[in-house]
Amino acid sequence: MAEPRRRRQWPYILAIALAVVGVLLLIAQDQDTIRVESPIEAADPGFPDYLAALTGTAAIDGNTYTVLRNGDETYPAMLDSIAKARSRISFESYVAKDDATGEQFIAALSAAAGRGVAVRVVLDSIGASLSDASQDRLEQAGVQVKWFNPLRFWALEETNYRTHRKVQVVDGEVAFIGGMGVADHWQGHAQDTEHWRDTQFRVEGPVVRMLEASFYENWLESGGRSAPALDPEPPPRPAGARSVVVWSNPTAGASNIKLVYLLAIAAARQSIDIQSPYITLDESTLWALTEARRRGVRVRLLGEGTITDAMPVKHASRSEYQDLLDLGVEIAEYQPTMMHTKALVVDGIVSLIGSANFGNRSFELNDELVVAVHDPGLAAALLRDFESDLQKSTTMHAATWKDQRSFTSTIQERFWFYFSEVF
């Protein structure tokens, strides 16, 4: 008699499980639609000050940015800076593996610590994976390794909050930020489906001090007992890009990361070019893009295609294509390999670069790091890359998008749409 009773109970168990999932998804939804308008245009020289005031930070002059494309350009530059370090290295990443690429960084960081450089490392406990042997090797060399939000059964809610920041700062003088972690799939030049297309940035100037400060926030949160005093604020430089550094933690409403994106979109008067994987919209970002189109702003979205490491997120993203296409938003998907570049350019002068994807997880759940740069030179370089990547992409069209969807695709897209704000 016990077996039939258990069979009769499973529909109730399933119903309870679905109800719990439904409640969690409801909680994750954008509870308040943030409708942001900007009285100051992106091209206005005062726009960085406006951004800084509303995000509680500072607009910093005199910075230079070098665009590094894919592993062939990025990893040699990062490793060279580690090899030249004299006093300290701060390294934080969501993804770090002890594959062949990871071995290069383990060796370089260990060598730096061996010659007396203070090396501090923060890794996310879900995104990163090091063997015990690799961690022991680092620590025996003198590298201090901390794990962000380690998994603990008594604090399961914390598993949803990750550090997605990617930052390397050397001697307080040079920094690297962007979308790249440390793993073999970032090697090369996006030459095949196994090697990703991505962008990293080498940063010099007074803004590096703020990037290092963002690292020490998570260093302390991850168990680091002390952070060294930052170098004195350097004197103003006569030339260089004006920049606003913004970092965020999990929050309700609008985090500073989300706010800086909404403000940048609101400041657009001509064009918005968004390149990002995992594009998912909430009511706030959808409203912002809708209003931009009503102002006559050209909006282009370039995301990854079916070569992705997160197909459910791709389905959720595609569920919103028709509405966006009907607004006149231009949408394309990169075809050769996984596209992981994160950059937004407004009116050919304001660029948002860093670790954040254009989606709710980055805007409200992850610890992220973004720099708003007011500089036509950087914007032009990013737009050249955008156009180059666009030539390798498939463009979607409002008149034919629905007809291209199979029944199975439509069901998948509709299903995963309900999870879009937790991706």
Tell me the number of strands: 15
Tell me the strand percentage band: 15-25%
Biggest beta-sheet profile: 15 strands, mixed
Shape annotation: globular
Give the C-alpha Rg: 22 Å
Q: Would you tell me the overall average pLDDT? A: 91
User: Class by helix and strand content?
Assistant: alpha+beta
Q: What is the chain-wise order of helices and strands?
A: HHEHEHEHEEEEHEHEHEHHEEEHEHEHH
- The end-to-end span amounts to 43 Å
Low-pLDDT residue intervals, each spanning 5 or more residues: none
Number of helices: 14
Strand order of the largest sheet: 4-3-2-5-6-7-1-8-14-13-12-9-10-11-15
Helix content: 25-40%
Architecture overview:
With 423 residues, the protein is α+β, with helices and mostly antiparallel strands. The protein has 14 helices and 15 strands. A 15-stranded mixed β-sheet has the order 4-3-2-5-6-7-1-8-14-13-12-9-10-11-15, sandwiched between helices. Helix 4 (100-114) runs parallel beside helix 5 and helix 9 crosses helix 14 (407-417). The protein is globular and about 60 Å long.
